[in-house]
Specification:
This protein is an alpha+beta fold and 106 residues long. Helix content is 41%, strand content 19%.
C-alpha cells in the first residue's frame, strides 16, 4: 500500500484552516468533547461559538449571504422609517422639540 501524497487533516485542523479569524480548539465540558471557537479580532461575528460536531460549528460560524431586497423589511430600515416619520409629523404640526432648544441655548 502506498502513502497518499495528500495530508490527512483532522476535523479540528480543517476548521482552523477554514476560519482563520477564530481560535478553534477542542474542550471537554461535562464529560463531552466540544469544538469551541473564539474570535481573534473584534470585527468578527459571532464572537464565540461551541458545538459538538465540526459541521455544526461550521454552520454557526458561516455568515449567511442574504441578497438585498428593499421589499423585505429590515429592522434598521423600519427603525429609520418610524423615527423619520415621527420627526416629519412633529415638524409638519409645528411642534418644537424643547430638548433641542435647551441644548442650543446652553
Amino acid at each position: 500500500m502506498t502513502k497518499s501524497p495528500l495530508p490527512i487533516r483532522t476535523a479540528l485542523e480543517t476548521l482552523q484552516l477554514e476560519f482563520a479569524d477564530y481560535r478553534i480548539m477542542r474542550v471537554a465540558i461535562g464529560g463531552k468533547l466540544f469544538f469551541v471557537a473564539d474570535a481573534i479580532s473584534s470585527h468578527v461575528q459571532p464572537r464565540s461559538a461551541q458545538a459538538e460536531t465540526a459541521d455544526r460549528l461550521r454552520s454557526k460560524l458561516r455568515i449567511p449571504e442574504v441578497e438585498f431586497n428593499p421589499a423585505v423589511p429590515s429592522i434598521a430600515r423600519v427603525y429609520d422609517f418610524l423615527l423619520l416619520r415621527h420627526e416629519a409629523l412633529r415638524y409638519r404640526a409645528g411642534v418644537r422639540d424643547l430638548r433641542r432648544q435647551a441644548v442650543a441655548a446652553a
